[in-house]
Design goal:
Chain lengths: 503, 317
């Protein structure tokens, strides 16, 4: 091509994506003032984005999808899905394109939910948005508990549970042995999720040194109770009349491994053999209120933003996600009126977030209520789905978090890295509806070197870091579809799945 | 399907955009379309121009030149199916031409002589071939042009740009009239339809296509007639979302026709996604279209990936 006189041709041989910073004239020639539905190919090409296809081939595929979570199971990666028709929220378990279990749970008004996988089970917490002083606040649904799903297609049910009622019948059994004396006895339910109820059916009995003890009218429990354990105090010299005032222990060999038998006879034990404490179970929630936020930290389940309390963080006993002490399992960061919006673990530190604040806690080996809150950032925080997950693990990246803050899309490694990754699209990001940041969801696909971000506009913002995960080398693009995008997840290692409703 | 007539309520004009008084002789400006001589504008249907002289900007008149006639889109000049004329902006939703014939009646004692030609010019780049007669008989003659006789000229072009009559040599007599400028043809009301298995009040509907942001209203017509207007909830160049009006007794299966207000001629084809494209999708490498659920009982449909584009930064901006 011959150049016009005094005009040199401008060659565009680099395509570095969407630029929305300053005014249009600030857009470098190798960037785009605007774009839609283009994807990056390699390090320096672009084309129309790939098309989408349906992800369910069964009859009656799910519609009105508002939320998805990865649910890794021992047999493979699956997805937990919430559908919402404006009245009822229903949760399904998507195993593969031809197998969907559910509804596992139906709750009126459940427009969103929090979820964490744990030991093959899933913990589900229904929540929705409430308008408080003109701002959307996400918190658990009133009167709803935390639910547990066993991962096998059966219905989800309320986590934790009450202890037995009534009173145990106790008598001397056949010849055996005990430390003779007055003791308190009780029963603990064991659920199929591993949860142990508070002791119940308490009663007293004076044992004889040369005889064992037999138990009758052992209460049976509700569905999901798979065993019952007899607990006992050590010998009490002076009984004060308070059945719950004594430390109780699991009796060795004091287990009934079913939920039907009404007696357990001829149990012998010495006080010295009572080693496993059960009295702390009295302090646990028997019904854990639903919250808008779930997280895992040091093998503990963490829950926050219940309907009645958006500031307290409930932390379970390590290894017992449904055992949350009402006494010392609570974290109480300084209340600034904004709810807890997210909980993430990074490098052995628990980071609770509010919409504009970040705090940290470190497990000191003692009970959670002894942990000390440390402010990390008093200006930057995130929303309920504003921390990115990686691939199909459903968890955060190992060494850093990808966080959607009001200021931008940022890397967090214990502190927020500036400039933000969304530096090039700063105008665009700041134009998003901050009151609907709850709709933002982030997935990181390191294989494709791309972030996918669901926007409050129900479209996607795509960040490509094939040229480096740096504010200056990130390449951005916007994707739109002929349906609304509510939620995304990575399935089967690196397949992006998109959930859509009719809004 | 119907017929339309655009009767001339044309005004005479030229590149300079002004009428000239009668008569002006001498050298005109260099604009080829300037009308120099006497033009008589009749404010009746049809147009007669007498005593024309033309100027090429150099040669004292008479000489080559162009006389141009056009109309205003606000003039009541368009008659549908014999009904009273309406303006362009009064056309019904979805109006689109399916054929057009432009005709003009030339009258006058006009002779071009050997080698002379005359043409109809529709814009600076589009002109008829040399008209078949080099002499317009005293009794007059109607010339008609229909696509594809001409390079494509839309009725809208004719309304907006008008048409001109050009000589390449001066006729030996100068008493012509150009009458009965007229566009006739057939039209349809543009619409899109779907026959759903069921439909209910307030069902969400999504349209996909291009230039959809020109839609200003949607009328839904069922087998029993017009049902009501769709309530548009969002609109982009590629997607329009609206909800069905209250259907009342009209609820049920059957064809639904959506008639569109706005500059509808530019927006076909339109894809209708009725009810429920919600669901679970996955990105498929190499796929060149989006496959959506039509609803959850009637399968899927492929739609184009909506409006892929980039706008580069300003070059040397």
């Amino acid at each position: 091509m011959l150049p016009l006189r005094d005009h040199s041709p401008t060659v565009l041989d680099e395509f570095n994506g969407f630029w929305s910073r300053g005014d249009d004239e600030n857009c470098p020639p190798d960037h785009w003032r605007d774009c839609n539905n283009v994807q990056f190919i390699g390090t320096n090409k672009f084309g129309t984005r790939d098309g989408i296809g349906i992800s369910q081939t069964l009859t009656g595929p799910l519609g009105n999808i508002v939320r998805t979570y990865n649910f890794p199971q021992p047999t493979g990666n699956t997805v937990i899905i919430l559908t919402y028709d404006g009245v009822n929220g229903k949760i399904y378990h998507y195993v593969n394109p031809t197998t969907v279990f559910g509804p596992l749970l139906t709750v009126a008004g459940m427009s969103d939910f929090a979820f964490v996988p744990y030991a093959g089970r899933g913990y589900i917490s229904p929540f929705t948005s409430f308008v408080v002083n003109g701002l959307n606040v996400e918190k658990g649904l009133s009167g709803q508990p935390l639910y547990v799903y066993k991962g096998d297609g059966t219905a989800a049910f309320s986590a934790a549970g009450a202890g037995p009622g009534g009173a145990l019948t106790i008598a001397n059994g056949a010849a055996g042995f005990t430390d003779a004396g007055f003791k308190v006895f009780g029963v603990v339910f064991e659920f199929d999720t591993g949860y142990l109820s508070p002791p119940g059916a308490l009663n007293t009995f004076t044992t004889s040194a040369s005889q064992s003890v037999s138990f009758g009218t052992v209460p049976t429990g509700p569905l999901h109770v798979i065993a019952r354990h007899i607990v006992a105090s050590k010998t009490i010299n002076t009984y004060n009349g308070n059945l719950q005032g004594y430390q109780l222990f699991f009796i060795p060999n004091g287990t009934i491994n079913d939920n039907t038998s009404l007696f357990l006879n001829n149990v012998s034990f010495y006080d010295a053999g009572l080693l496993e404490d059960a009295s702390h179970l009295f302090d646990n929630f028997t019904t854990i209120p639903a919250g808008a936020v779930l997280g895992l930290y040091h093998n503990r389940l963490c829950l926050a933003s219940t309907f009645d309390d958006t500031n307290t963080i409930f932390v379970s006993t390590a290894g017992e996600p449904e055992a949350i002490s009402q006494v010392d399992g609570l974290l109480e960061p300084q209340n600034d009126g904004n709810p807890i919006t997210n909980l993430q673990e990074l490098r052995d530190v628990l980071y609770p977030f509010r919409r504009t604040k970040t705090i940290s806690y470190v497990d000191n080996g003692d009970v959670p209520s002894s942990w000390i809150p440390v402010p990390v950032d008093n200006a930057l925080g995130t929303s309920v789905h504003g921390v990115g997950t990686v691939l199909d693990s459903g968890s955060t990246n190992v060494d850093q978090l990808l966080i959607a803050t009001y200021e931008g899309f940022m890397l967090f490694n214990g502190r927020y890295m500036t400039p933000e990754l969304s530096w090039k699209v700063d105008n665009f990001w700041r134009g998003l509806d901050q009151n609907n940041f709850r709709k933002i969801q982030i997935v990181n696909n390191p294989i494709e070197k791309e972030f996918y971000i669901v926007l409050p506009t129900q479209n996607l913002l795509v960040g490509n870091y094939a040229n480096g995960m740096d504010p200056k080398t990130m390449r951005w693009s916007k994707w739109s579809f002929s349906m609304s995008v509510n939620t995304i997840a990575i399935f089967n290692i690196n397949t992006l799945i998109i959930g859509s409703d009719n809004s | 399907m119907g017929t339309y007539v655009v009767n001339t309520w044309f005004s005479l004009d030229a590149n300079t955009g002004t009428f000239r008084a009668d008569p002006i002789l001498g050298t005109c400006s260099s604009a080829d379309a300037d009308i120099l001589s006497a033009l008589s504008h009749q404010s009746t249907a049809g147009l007669a121009v007498f005593n024309q002289h033309f100027c090429d900007g150099v040669t004292p008149c008479p000489a080559n030149g162009l006389i141009r006639a056009s109309t205003l889109l606000t003039n009541n000049a368009i008659s549908l199916d014999g009904n009273p004329a309406i303006s362009f902006f009064g056309l019904p939703a979805g109006f689109q031409l399916t054929s057009e014939v432009f005709s003009i009646f030339l009258r006058g004692n006009l002779s071009f002589g050997a080698g002379g030609h005359h043409f109809l010019q529709f814009n600076p780049l589009t002109e008829s071939v040399s008209l078949p007669l080099d002499t317009v008989p005293a009794g007059g003659l109607t010339y008609s042009f229909s696509n594809p006789d001409l390079p494509f000229v839309s009725a809208l072009d004719l309304l907006g740009d008008g048409a001109g009559w050009r000589y390449d040599t001066a006729p030996s007599f100068f008493f012509p009239s150009m009458e009965a400028w007229q566009i006739t043809g057939s039209y349809v009301i543009i619409s899109a339809s779907i026959t759903p298995s069921s439909v209910s009040s307030h069902t969400p509907v999504t349209l996909t296509g291009s230039s959809l942001d020109t839609i200003t209203g949607i009328t839904i017509v069922g087998s029993g007639g017009a049902i009501g207007s769709g309530i548009i909830t969002s609109i982009t160049p590629t997607t329009v979302k609206f909800t069905m009006p209250s259907l009342g007794l009209a609820t049920g299966a059957g064809m639904l026709v959506f008639e569109f207000s706005g500059f509808a001629p530019f927006m076909l084809p339109i894809t209708i996604i009725l009810a429920d494209p919600s669901g679970l999708y996955e990105l498929i490498p190499g796929k060149t279209a989006d496959t959506l659920y039509v609803d959850h009982s009637t399968g899927t449909m492929d739609v184009a990936i909506p409006n892929p584009f980039i706008k580069t930064g300003f070059i040397n901006g």
